[in-house]
Amino acid sequence: MGTAIIVLAAGKGTRMHSDRPKVLHKLAGAPLLYHAMRAGEMIAAERTVVVVGHGGADVQSAALAFHGEAICVDQPEQKGTAHAVLQAAPALEDFEGNVIVLYGDTPFIAPATLEEMLALRAQGNDIVVLGFEAADPGRYGRLITRDGQLEAIVEAKDASEEELRITLCNSGVVCADARVLLDLAGAVGRENASGEYYLTDIVAIARARGLTAAAYTCEEEETLGVNSRNDLAEAEAVFQATARTDAMAAGVTLVQPETVYFAFDTVIARDVVIGPNVVFGPEVTIETGAEIGAFCHLEGCHIARDARVGPFARLRPGADLDEGARIGNFVEVKAATIGRGAKVNHLSYVGDASVGAGTNIGAGVITCNYDGVFKHRTEIGENAFIGSNTALVAPVSVGATALIGSGAVITRDVPAGDLALARARQVNREGLGQRLMARLRALKAKGGRA
Ligand code: UD1
Ligand code: CA
């Protein structure tokens, strides 16, 4: 039997003080929304429904960018979490199986936790709610349990003093059979302190109907929700701390872990060494044995085994380094393949290009890929040598084993094996340097100017 997720993401996020919908604020380089959707992806959810409201069009396009088959349903007016879940009914009409409700602003629910909840469902519990022991229960809903059964959830606003003393709180994550969930959500009323349709009411309704309910307890950290910029910064810190620990546990050396920033999807193999102050944007994969020096910024790139990058290098989307390639200091690479063992060691820009295996790119080489309107490609063959301070005006190609003298402006293709010289011929005038300097010094001594 399959599983579907409903991600509630209609809220405004007033306390963010932002024109941007809350769930589109970024955590580890990705909208908050992605983190919840990713949990669904990790448990191989067959259907993803996102309930959108504030900033609906933007949230919808973000949801679709993450998962092309996500179904977005609109909740123009936020009347409560049960009402939000009901908006998903049409999208689940033909769905048979379990549904898990997640919040778009709660990024850390672990896939393993969802699996545990599904296991409790499989053991015959009609509703499974994710709870946690709250250090400060405050405004959270309280889980009322008796003899290991979940009896009800009481919102803090509606709770008695005795109920408020309960520390087992509601995370908001719920799992139930699709038909059961929608049926129960439809039975919820709004006679409470907030006048909202509370999803939490489904537990008491279910129990009254003779259904069973259970709570699964996770660590409080997993349930951390983002309501303010401060929460967002806290969530980022939590994410990074976990990502660093996980990377090291998987065999990655972090020379100064607290200065390395990972993205939500960074993939690094064992025996990679990462120096201090390295920042990862989305979509980076690094294979074993590679070394990333200090102060690099990497995004959308692939680094094959034993390659070396940095210090002070920038790899932008589409940079693809083959085995043992070297990218040195103050080098930027974008949408370019760097062949096996090729070297771009100093002060260069390589964009929209391919560099063959074993080729050496000298200091200060620039691929001039942009004519102000169009982008053009530069193709460089294997074992070529591009002299320092060469401008390669694309579209242009340099054949294998070709040699370009330094200071060239290359506007025509260089055939394989050729030597290209494209600079003014040097002229030396005997003794003229010395005579010129003497004349200038004499002028200065008389108080004049050149
Ligand atoms: C909810 C739970 C509470 C739990 C807490 C955990 C209910 C009634 N209460 O309270 O027991 O302890 O979460 O954080 O469910 N949303 C919509 N549409 C709506 C209402 C909400 O999409 O009409 C979304 C919000 O954007 C948010 C999430 O659902 O992401 C939770 O809603 P919120 O109003 O913040 O619920 P809480 O009062 O925090
Ligand atoms: Ca909330």
Summarize this structure briefly.
By secondary structure, this protein is of the alpha/beta class.
Describe this structure in words.
The chain is 21% helix and 29% strand. It has 450 residues and is α/β, with parallel strands linked by helices. It has two domains: 2-223, Alpha-Beta Complex (Spore Coat Polysaccharide Biosynthesis Protein SpsA, Chain A), CATH 3.90.550.10; 229-420, 3 Solenoid (UDP N-Acetylglucosamine Acyltransferase, domain 1), CATH 2.160.10.10. The strands form six sheets. Strands 13, 15, 16, 18, 19, 21, 22, 24, 26, 29 and 32 form an eleven-stranded parallel β-sheet that branches. It has a ten-stranded parallel β-sheet with strand order 12-14-17-20-23-25-27-30-33-35, covered by helices on one side. A hairpin with a 2-residue loop joins strand 2 and strand 3 (30-31). Uridine-diphosphate-N-acetylglucosamine (UD1) is lined by residues 8-11, 51, 75, 78-81, 83-84, 103-105, 140-141, 153, 155, 169-172, 198-200, 225.
Per CATH, the architecture of the largest domain is Alpha-Beta Complex
Extended strand count: 35
Strand coverage percent? 25-35%
**What is the name of the CATH topology of the largest domain?**
Spore Coat Polysaccharide Biosynthesis Protein SpsA, Chain A
Q: What is the CATH homologous superfamily assignment of the largest domain? A: Spore Coat Polysaccharide Biosynthesis Protein SpsA, Chain A
Quaternary structure of the protein: single chain
Summed over residues and divided by their number, the pLDDT gives a mean of: 97
Helix-strand makeup class: alpha/beta
Distance between the termini: 89 Å
The coarse silhouette is: elongated
List the bound ligands.
uridine-diphosphate-N-acetylglucosamine, calcium ion
Largest sheet: 11 strands, parallel
Q: Domains counted in the coordinates: how many?
A: 2
Helical fraction equals 10-25%
Low-confidence stretches: none
The radius of gyration over CA amounts to 30 Å
Given the structure, what is the number of helices?
9
Highest-level CATH class of the largest domain: Alpha Beta
